[in-house]
Design goal:
277 residues, alpha+beta, Aminopeptidase, 2 domains, 10 helices, 12 strands, transferase, GNAT family N-acetyltransferase, DUF4081, Acyl_CoA_acyltransferase, GNAT_dom
Length: 277
């Protein structure tokens, strides 16, 4: 039957779910998107599927984020051709081998659309823990609400600018809506002192018993004081009530953060890579 690439649709849902379930920690981002939007091109974006002898072996989402999944190297050049020169995405994210291969292919084939980027995070250790950490928690940690919006927004902008090197407003005013949704969905945790967020941590993609920890940030005035581990322990103990498996990915050069996560019981299980535009 050979190899072929095609756009996937609702009838392919079972095959897509089965493929993503082979490596559920790595593919949580895409699994959560598919669970939320289905394989609907208008809501999810285009989902390209690579089949080898009639079996789906790799997929690639082309939406606001480009996300490849699957371990078939023959799929990468076909994904490059299918995505084409017009870039709508603000990032490429995925398991390192697939994401970096796709990035190099796109940048070489379509340099006008994909060759200029803000930064490349080539190695981001993927870490996971199960259950609640047995560490004394900071009792000040709580769910943040819309009453905390202004300070939480300021903390989120500060964190984004530190991490990416540019403002989250470069794509327009939508970042405030994104931050508000985190609060409304009860996905933001923090410590607030005198109406100022001094620690925050967010939940990103969620699927079944999995959730991904994102957006961990400590106010510069409170860094180096041993705040982050007990604060994250407080959040994780609450999150474990609904999500037994919590994963995260972190820049490989952020050694203090990696050591903190290891202290909290996170184990290394793989590597993701991100390209920001």
């Amino acid at each position: 039957m050979g190899n072929r690439l095609r756009l996937l649709g609702p009838d392919d849902r079972v095959a897509v779910d089965a493929l993503l379930a082979q490596r559920p920690i790595e593919t949580l981002f895409l699994a959560a998107k598919v669970a939320m939007f289905g394989i609907d091109r208008r809501r999810l974006g285009k989902l390209h599927g690579f089949e080898r002898d009639g079996v789906l072996t790799a997929v690639c989402l082309n939406g606001g984020t480009v996300f490849p999944a699957g371990l078939d190297p023959d799929a990468i050049p076909m994904f490059v051709d299918a995505i084409g020169p017009l870039r709508r995405a603000s990032s490429i994210l995925g398991p390192s081998m697939a994401a970096l291969g796709l990035f190099v292919g796109l940048a070489e084939r379509w340099p006008g659309g994909w060759g200029s980027y803000a930064n490349v995070r080539r190695t981001q250790p993927l870490m996971v823990r199960r259950g609640a950490p047995d560490i004394e928690a900071d009792p000040r940690v709580r769910l943040l609400t819309m009453r905390d919006f202004d300070s939480y927004l300021a903390a989120s902008v500060h964190m984004y600018t530190e991490e990416i090197g540019s403002s989250p407003y470069k794509y327009g005013p939508g970042y405030e809506s994104f931050v508000a949704e985190r609060l409304k969905n009860h996905d933001a945790w923090g410590i607030v002192e005198k109406s100022e967020v001094i620690f925050k941590a967010d939940l990103g993609p969620k699927f079944r018993d999995q959730a991904q920890l994102q957006g961990v940030w400590v106010h510069p005035d409170h860094r180096g004081k041993g705040l982050s581990v007990p604060a994250m322990a407080g959040m994780l103990q609450e999150v474990a009530r609904t999500h037994n498996v919590v994963s995260l990915y972190v820049n490989d050069f952020n050694i203090p953060a990696i050591k903190s996560y290891e202290h909290l019981g996170f184990e290394h299980v793989g590597s993701l890579s991100t390209v920001h535009y």
